[in-house]
């Protein structure tokens, strides 16, 4: 039986995008459009190349799926309307945010915001991974004014319908084997070098000084230049493979997600599936993911965070606590649920 063709536009291939591709390939014959859009000086060339690639492939496709709004979503949604092909933009976070002081968010750049605006307007359906990407406001980072985000906040006249489909996870991959030796009182965070303030590395650096008897690890990048003399109990692990990342989760007692903004929190869910007790900021979807199974920091304040750490260390989590943390993610975000929801909205 011949599979119907589908066109996928992706600027990058994070694990959550690869999962979607694997699931969709079971039912559709996928054509993938990808360029290295991080090379901004080449964006005009990529747009020309993309236009002609799409001109050939859009008419042959049943539909178009675009990961993230950006320069790369403009022509797919435009040609989707021209050729009568439905287009879907999966919104992940940065495409719904503008935080100029932290150099974060696609919508802080006027030209990129222009491309996103028309892409979102021309799309058949928007598929944000969390409700906070529709409209959200919080005072974690600043109080006057609060930090507001979401495509409905930035584009209040937008009429395109949307449907929230959360990220999902292969729960068995992150399962901790019995007899695992976890170091109590150890802390882990996962982020990239560009997210130093955005995800609270400065807070973790300060904590390491205040808790010299505990260990703090940061995965995702090597020791930054600004950290010439980090505390001896603070270690930068660099980029890790999925299996090495799983091992790092399984060795850690607590997991930090101290973000100023977080579209969803994939690493948080992986850590919880691995039995880590979460300590998160009160932004976006993070409090909902954690529920009553972790700690929530209400303000971006190192003294408040210190109080939370002392409370967490004074009552070490039990094996039952770690099982409960894992079961929360198992029940809320299994990948099979995302796969089912995604296939339901696509043309049959």
Mind explaining what this structure looks like?
The protein is α/β, with parallel strands linked by helices and about 350 residues long. It is built from twelve helices and 13 strands. It has a six-stranded parallel β-sheet with strand order 10-9-8-11-12-13, with helices on both faces. A five-stranded parallel β-sheet has the order 2-1-3-4-5, sandwiched between helices. A two-stranded antiparallel sheet has the order 6-7. Strand 4, helix 4 and strand 5 form a beta-alpha-beta unit. Helix 2 runs parallel beside helix 3 and helix 3 runs parallel beside helix 4. The chain starts with a strand and ends with a helix. The mean pLDDT is about 95.
What are its keywords?
glycosyltransferase; transferase; 16% strand; globular; Rossmann fold; Glyco_trans_1; 348 residues; Glycosyltransferase; glycosyltransferase activity; 2 domains; alpha/beta
The count of strands amounts to 13
CATH homologous superfamily (4th level) name of the largest domain:
Glycogen Phosphorylase B
Largest β-sheet summary:
6 strands, parallel
- CATH class annotation of the largest domain: Alpha Beta
User: What is the ordering of alpha helices and beta strands?
Assistant: EHEHEHEHEEEHEHEEHEHEHEHHH
Query: Unreliable runs, pLDDT <50, ≥5 residues?
Result: none
Report the CATH architecture of the largest domain: 3-Layer(aba) Sandwich
Question: Please, how many helices?
Answer: 12
How many domains make up the 3D coordinates? 2
Rg result:
21 Å
The assigned structural class equals alpha/beta
C-alpha termini separation: 15 Å
Strand content: 15-25%
Roughly how much helix do the residues carry, as a percent range? Answer: 25-40%
Overall mean confidence score, pLDDT? 94
Strand order, biggest sheet? 10-9-8-11-12-13
Shape: globular
CATH topology-level name of the largest domain? Rossmann fold
């Amino acid at each position: 039986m011949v599979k119907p063709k589908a066109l996928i536009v992706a600027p990058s291939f994070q694990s959550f995008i690869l999962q979607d591709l694997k699931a969709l390939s079971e039912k559709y014959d996928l054509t993938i459009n990808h360029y290295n859009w991080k090379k901004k000086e080449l964006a005009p060339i990529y747009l020309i190349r993309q236009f002609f690639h799409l001109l050939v492939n859009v008419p042959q496709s049943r539909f178009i799926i675009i990961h993230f709004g950006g320069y790369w979503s403009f022509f797919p949604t435009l040609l989707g309307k021209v050729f009568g092909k439905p287009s879907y933009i999966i919104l992940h976070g940065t495409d719904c945010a503008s935080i100029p002081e932290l150099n974060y968010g696609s919508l802080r750049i006027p030209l990129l915001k222009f491309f996103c605006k028309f892409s979102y307007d021309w799309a058949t359906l928007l598929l944000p991974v969390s409700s906070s990407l529709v409209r959200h406001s919080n005072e974690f980072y600043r109080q006057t004014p609060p930090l507001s985000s979401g495509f409905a906040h930035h584009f209040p006249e937008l009429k395109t319908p949307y449907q929230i489909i959360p990220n999902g996870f292969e729960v068995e991959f992150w399962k901790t084997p019995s007899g695992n030796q976890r170091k109590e009182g150890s802390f882990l965070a996962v982020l990239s070098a560009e997210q130093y303030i955005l995800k609270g590395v400065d807070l973790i650096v300060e904590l390491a000084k205040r808790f010299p008897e505990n260990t703090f690890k940061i995965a995702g990048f090597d020791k930054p230049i600004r950290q010439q003399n980090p505390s001896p109990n603070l270690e930068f692990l660099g980029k890790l493979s999925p299996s090495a990342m799983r091992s790092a989760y399984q060795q850690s007692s607590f997991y930090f997600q101290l973000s100023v903004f977080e579209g969803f929190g994939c690493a948080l869910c992986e850590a919880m599936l691995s039995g880590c007790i979460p300590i998160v900021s009160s932004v976006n979807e993070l409090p909902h993911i954690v529920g009553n199974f972790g700690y929530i920091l209400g303000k971006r304040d190192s003294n408040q965070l210190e109080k939370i750490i002392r409370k967490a260390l004074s009552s070490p989590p039990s094996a039952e606590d770690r099982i409960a943390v894992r079961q929360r993610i198992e029940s809320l975000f299994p990948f099979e649920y995302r796969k089912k929801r995604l296939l339901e909205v696509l043309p049959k």
